[in-house]
């Protein structure tokens, strides 16, 4: 299962291998969730979700063998477009540009596209095998973790690209904080690493988490994003302060890998 809270915090989207996405309304007063709409037809299952910056649209990607991406209009509760550029594609990751009118998507088979809300491919990079994507706050550059253990930046205005960082093992997933400077990486067999994107240096390696080659996600949290949380293959969730390598909390209760 995968889940994402909307930017305004009032909706929750959950996706599953059962081919559905469920939209839930979140009531901050009663601290309850109520079913709003089930969006079905994701024939490959749902492995990744991304809300648009204004919360009006939702992107849904499938697993590695999925060549399709679904763009839902949450206000009308209708499918706006199903993107399938080529049957050879693997569209497993996506990210929204800050203006909410464009998004990027790609996967491990070497396809990497920038698209508009109608599903038109505006630009593309060939031969880029993508594990994870992140649009930066400048509205024109995109970070991509590739199968060569790197995170590279791609600029769609001048069609330039450059290395940002290199790890010893594959970067499975990553995210960037609100300052657009710190990146949190889940690295295969190594765990959770914190990088400074401006200085291009490894800041900290967080201890405790079990990370093999499963897709594990981590995130920044707290009022000032001073905390970090990550799933783990040992069925636990780990929480750290951003300035401490050892976890300040270990949450138990799951019986299988926490993605």
Which value, in Å, is the CA radius of gyration? Answer: 18 Å
Strand sequence of the main sheet, in spatial order?
Answer: 1-2-3-4
Stretches where pLDDT falls below 50 for ≥5 residues? none
Morphology: globular
Contiguous helical run count: 0
Give the C-level CATH assignment of the largest domain. Answer: Mainly Beta
Can you describe this structure in just a few lines?
The chain has about 260 residues and is mostly beta strands.
Question: What this model shows, in words?
Answer:
By secondary structure, the chain is mainly β. The protein folds into two domains: 1-166, Methylamine Dehydrogenase, Chain H; 178-258. The chain has no helices and 24 strands. It has strands at 2-5, 11-15, 21-27, 32-39, 48-51, 57-61, 69-73, 78-83, 93-96, 102-106, 111-116, 121-126, 130-135, 141-146, 150-155, 160-166, 171-176, 182-187, 191-196, 201-206, 218-221, 227-230, 237-241, 249-251. It has a four-stranded antiparallel beta sheet, with no helix packed on it. Strands 5-6-7-8 form a four-stranded antiparallel beta sheet, with no helix packed on it. The chain has a four-stranded antiparallel beta sheet with strand order 9-10-11-12, with no helix packed on it. The protein is globular. The N and C termini lie close together (8 Å). It is found in: Cytoplasm. Keywords: Cytoplasm, Repeat, WD repeat.
Record the SSE blueprint:
Layout: E1 2-5, E2 11-15, E3 21-27, E4 32-39, E5 48-51, E6 57-61, E7 69-73, E8 78-83, E9 93-96, E10 102-106, E11 111-116, E12 121-126, E13 130-135, E14 141-146, E15 150-155, E16 160-166, E17 171-176, E18 182-187, E19 191-196, E20 201-206, E21 218-221, E22 227-230, E23 237-241, E24 249-251
Main location: cytoplasm
Keywords: Cytoplasm, Repeat, WD repeat
InterPro entries: WD40/YVTN_repeat-like_dom_sf, WD40_repeat_CS, WD40_repeat_dom_sf, WD40_rpt, WD_repeat-ST_regulator
